[in-house]
Design goal:
Blueprint: H1 7-13, H2 17-28, H3 42-53, H4 60-65, H5 71-78, E1 82-84, E2 95-100, E3 105-114, E4 117-119, E5 134-135, H6 136-140, E6 156-159, E7 162-169
Antiparallel strand pairs: 1-7, 2-3, 2-7, 3-4, 4-5, 6-7
Length: about 170
């Protein structure tokens, strides 16, 4: 059984593609909570969601052998259409990764719920509860000046007093 896959999640693995696809649709709409099927951290639940959508891209083997921030390199490989978010609406089901420049790494993952909204777990401001959507425009507010009062370029935001960028993978 894959790490962090719940008993309910394991039962879904035995189902056909259309059942998995319907579950993915219910998850992105917030009708069901992803934590009933896959636990642990934000990167894992995003990978599980994408597995439900397309089990050939994110495989059961991937779920069994990848955890946490290790998913970033797999997302880079399997979803080569990467672009920086600049405030435009995002197509539902797109992978959303948050990159903290100070640390030089990704610190959070979410799934786009359409518009500027995301669903995620384990982040107070960027989604603690999968069922509740987070409006990224409200959270990030596109503050135009960094801590040194210098203008930020498009696609960079201040979050928790540090510069971040948001990347979309599809």
């Amino acid at each position: 059984m894959p790490r962090h896959l719940t008993e309910k999640g394991y039962e879904v693995e035995k189902k056909d593609f259309s059942t998995k696809s319907r579950l993915a649709e219910d998850l992105v709409k917030g009708f069901k909570d992803v934590r009933n099927y896959m636990g642990n951290v934000c990167f894992d639940v995003v990978a599980y969601f994408k597995h439900l959508e397309d089990p050939n891209t994110i495989t059961l083997f991937d779920l069994e052998n990848t955890v946490g921030e290790q998913w970033v390199s797999l997302f880079e490989l399997k979803y080569p259409n990467k672009r920086k978010w600049t405030g435009n609406p995002i197509i539902s089901s797109t992978i959303v990764l948050f990159y903290r420049h100070r640390d030089g790494k990704f610190f959070h993952a979410a799934i786009a719920a359409g518009g500027h909204n995301i669903r995620a777990i384990n982040s107070i401001k960027l989604g603690t509860d999968w069922i509740g959507e987070i409006d990224m425009l409200k959270v990030l507010k596109n503050e135009q000046k960094n801590s040194e009062n210098k203008e930020l370029p498009p696609g960079k935001y201040m979050f928790d007093r540090t510069e971040i960028s948001v990347y979309l993978y599809s």
